[in-house]
Amino acid sequence: MIGSLLIANRGEIACRVIRTAQRLGIRTVAVYSDADADALHVRMADEAVHIGPSPVRESYLVGEALIAAARNAGAEAIHPGYGFLSENADFAQAVLDAGLVWVGPKPASIRAMGLKDAAKKLMADAGVPVTPGYLGDDQRPERLKAEADAIGYPVLIKAVAGGGGKGMKRVDAAADFDAALASAKREAAAAFGDDRVLIEKYVTRPRHIEVQVFGDQFGDVVHLFERDCSLQRRHQKVLEEAPSPALSAEGRKKIGETVNKAIAAIGYLGVGTIEFLWEDGEFFFIEMNTRLQVEHPVTEMITGVDLVREQVRIAAGLPLSFTQEDIKFQGHAIEVRINAENSETFTPSPGTISDFHAPGGLGVRLDSAIYAGYSIPPYYDSLIGKLIVHGRDREEAIARLKRSLNEVVVGGVDTTIPLFQRLLAEPDILSGDYDIHWLEKWAARQKGDA
Ligand code: MV4
Predict the structure, then answer these.
(1) CB of 415 closer than 6 angstroms to any ligand 1 atom
(2) Exposure winner among 254, 351, 354, 393, fewest CB in 10 A?
(3) List of long-range contacts for 63-72, beta carbons under 8 Å, 24+ apart
(4) What are 360-385's pLDDT values in tens digits?
(5) How far does residue 200's CA lie from ligand 1's centre (Å)?
(6) pTM of the predicted protein model
(7) Is the beta carbon of 66 within 6 A of some atom in ligand 1?
């Protein structure tokens, strides 16, 4: 088992990883930038190493500084958290080359899933349904146009090196294709240094369903059911829940069997999330994330599995703690992301937390890294914390969420708490009847009504 772990991240996810590591008796080493000298993750860890100035490019994104910090502190493993370098194959390789344990998938898997055409091909070959389209072997504009015409409009042009909504262009008619292709390639070259694109049939009103998966060194694969992440705005998830209110038991069984087949086929190691579009009972692979995700706690709450403990065990070469047959889920969990933002305009609201009170009670969890007197630095994302609730069913989870939102106190900055209080009065949210466009339409209506 790993004896010491450096957490190459900050904020609530660093605190969350430290909690599990300390419970397992692992010595924890935090890293911090100038702005994070007084941050909670620094206080919680057994040790802390300063890695540089506040801007991420001079601290949390500097792989060499993170590896040097691990060496100097005698940490034998590195956990990347999410974001930052968590899906950077070169960093993962550098960690391994430095003789350290990488708590994450193999660099080759990170690389393979980073290119959307290769990922789609791998999945299609493993029998996973993928969105109909053209993978772009031939990038000549006339070929891409001909393929788009054959697929039928609307289509999506997607950057091969893109992801998470970056590098996507919807085209509604043939006449618009050439201009859209030119700008998609320009943007992809600028953003990713790779202007290759693929073409897909546009799925008009899907839900975003993602399945948590695990693979160990012995080829065992299990899934931990799905999360519904459809409530999002500009590709920023706002509310996530598990299980999805849209999936029937047979739908859940079907998608679970599909992902286990896929993960076995690609020889996946570690924790991963496979993202699908779900529409009218059909699902299509869109991309795979090779990191622990922000919303992982809803899966933990319905399965009782500590995903970070499993990550650490897999990285230490131990087998998974359970088989697929062992895994059942109980009840329903919902997460809301509490950001230091104005809940009407979604604009960041940095500042000092003047007052803070965390909600409690059965089935209530707040993963946060703030405290009264803490100043939210402007260099990083505005996430204050994730409020996660669990109930025996969705209704009980919603009742707990409503009450917890009334209990939590964050003074001194605007937060998205009022947004969730408004959303939980909406019939579509209470019934779970929403797709990926619902929130943006609702927010536009709110503005229109204002
Ligand atoms: C799509 C799609 C519709 N049709 N692909 C957005 C980011 C990445 N996860 C893929 N995404 C989409 N791909 C086809 N063929 C709609 C989206 C999409 C989306 C997907 C999931 C969650 C939120 C989304 C918001 C906008 C667009």
Answers:
(1) no
(2) 393
(3) 63/88, 63/90, 63/91, 63/94, 63/95, 64/94, 65/31, 66/6, 66/8, 66/31, 66/91, 67/94, 67/95, 67/98, 67/100, 69/6, 69/29, 69/31, 70/6, 70/29, 70/95, 70/98, 70/100, 71/98
(4) 999 999 999 999 999 999 999 999 99
(5) 11
(6) 0.96
(7) no
